[in-house]
Every structure is written in structure tokens, then in C-alpha cells.
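Changelog excerpt

This revision adds worked examples to the README so contributors can see how folded entries look when concatenated. The first example is reproduced verbatim below.
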Amino acid sequence: MESQPQTDAANPGDSYMNDAKQEDSLRSSIIDSSPLPIFAIDAEDRVRYLWNDEAEGVFGWSKSQIVGRKLPMVPEENREEIKDLRKRSLRGETFRGVETRFQKENGDLIDVTISLAPLTEEGTDEAVLCIASDIQERQEMEITFKDSKNLYKKLFNRLNDAFFLSP
């Protein structure tokens, strides 16, 4: 015999409401515990209600300092690029892994990739979801690899004697 989900006979919608609250709580937990900075920007390039702990850790601004402000982490030379991406995302485009440069609260510049997607919620203005990733470590590894490759080429080209490698 199949078991049916139990609902409160007085109000069958209570079960759904509890599931919806749990889903909202889970969604919030995922965003808050993300290892990547997550934030939302509106049509005026202001940070919306979404600014997770990792965004604070990477960029330096607390949620209370940044929500409602015009993207202080975008340096002047990158504002048009970010504005264009935001506009296109509000029209429905999604972007993944766009390399750009942001500025931390302390003024240091940081190379990041950002991914953007339209974020719409019933009853609210449209916004763009942004997920950033610090790519400094990757860039340093790429430089080390290139330097190593160049050193190997120089060494190989300076060898006067032929040699053989055998298994």
C-alpha cells in the first residue's frame, strides 16, 4: 500500500508553506556559505540586497557599507565594460568567466573572472546576479609555467652535444 504525504487536514497548504520556507532557508545558506563572492546589481549599477560573506572577505566592504552604493569595486577604466555586461544581462544574456579587474576597499586591484545572469523575483525590480572568482593565483601559476618553459628552451638551445634519452 502506497503511503501518502501527510498534511494538516485543517490547512493542506501548511505543508507547502513549510517546504517553501525551508527552500528559502536552504537557498540563503547556499549563498552565504559559497566559497565565491556573490552579489546582485540593479539597473543603476548599485549593489542590491545580495552581498555574501565571501564578497566581504575578498573585496573588504561589509554588506551594510555596500548595499545601495554604485559598485565601488569597479575601477573607472572598467565601468563601461561592466555597465554593458549588466545591460545585456538584464535583457536575458548570461556571461561566464569574463576576466576583469576590481578594486578592494583598501584600494588594491584584484584580477577576477565574473559570471553574470539575469535575476528576477516576482514583485521586485530586475537585477543581475554576479559571481566573482579571484584569479590571481592562476595567473601567477601561468607566469611560472611560461618562465619555466622559456628557461627550458634556453637550456636546450645552448646544448652543444647531442644526447639521447633511453628508457
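The second example, added in the same revision:
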Amino acid sequence: MEPPFRQQYQIAGRTIITCLFSERLDFPYGDGYFSKHKTVITPTSINGGAGVSSVPATCRAAVDVRLIPAQSREFVLQTVLDVIEGVKVAYPKLAVKLEETVYLPSTLIPAELPIVKAVLGASQAVLGSEPLLSVAGPANEGYLLNELGIPAICGFGPEGGNSHAADEFVESESLVCAARIYARIAGRVNG
């Protein structure tokens, strides 16, 4: 016997969410500086129902998708749509609305640019060694400057941990070190 429609809706919503966050959507790693990174889909909220004793008539899920240059926005969107269509085969009455609220593209600047050389040189002078070039993520607003032709270095600064968590911290000694590096960068770029 088939469960009531509301239960089907709940099961279908749960199935879509499970598929989106499962290994079945294990995107490949990128190239170059992105070789240790891949596109990731992360649930940020799932809502439904009005109380503990009622079967929800709707389910709303918000997901965060962090792209790398190797995967286009269109490819990932189509992958999500394919998951939804696959679930709709089993639940043909299911209605799904997909809405993109924010898009932050990945960005990369060439290592040969003067700003990159200034950061490396200033770091060498203050730290006694050059930092490894890598990518920052998962997302930042550096793309806005890069799209305008203003090269931006992202993710370079003081050391700390647990970003965006209740116990996020910064190591106070690294603040002084970062300030010295920033001052030298300004001198190299403007001097």
C-alpha cells in the first residue's frame, strides 16, 4: 500500500537531500592550485512542518555550493536538477522549486603579477621564508576586484582557526607579524 501523499512528499524531500550530500555527487578535484579542492555541496538548513505531531506538507532546504574553476555553475545546477528528476520518477506528484540566491564564482590570478611577488617578498623579509602559493576558500569577494582588473590576494593574513564558529580564534602574535608583512607589501607596491 502506498503511503499518503504528505508522507511521500516527506520521503521524496529526504531522498533529494540525501542524494545531494552523498558520495554519488563526489565531484572531481581541480587542476593546479585547485588540485586539493573540489566542488562541495553542503546543507545549511532544512525546514518543514509546523509541529512535532504533524507530517510536513512541504520541505525547504538551503544548500551552499562552493565551486572550483573546473566545474561550471551550469554543470552543477544540471547535476542537482538530474537528482531531482531521478527522485520525481518515484514520486511523480512531487513539485520542486529550485532557486539560486547568491553566486560567488571562484577566481585565480597569475602568480607572476606584481602583487603576488610583493606578498612573497614581504613574507620572505618578515618570516624568513616565502609562503606556499595556494588558493583561499571556500569563497570570498576577491572575485569582484579580479573581475574589475584589480588583482586581489585572498586568504592571506594572521593565523587562527575554527572559522565562522563560536570558538573562532586568531593567534595574537600572528597579528603583529601580518601587520609587518602588510606594511612591506604597501611599500613594495606603492614605492
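Reviewer comment on example two: The longest helix spans residues 172-190. The longest strand covers residues 40-47.
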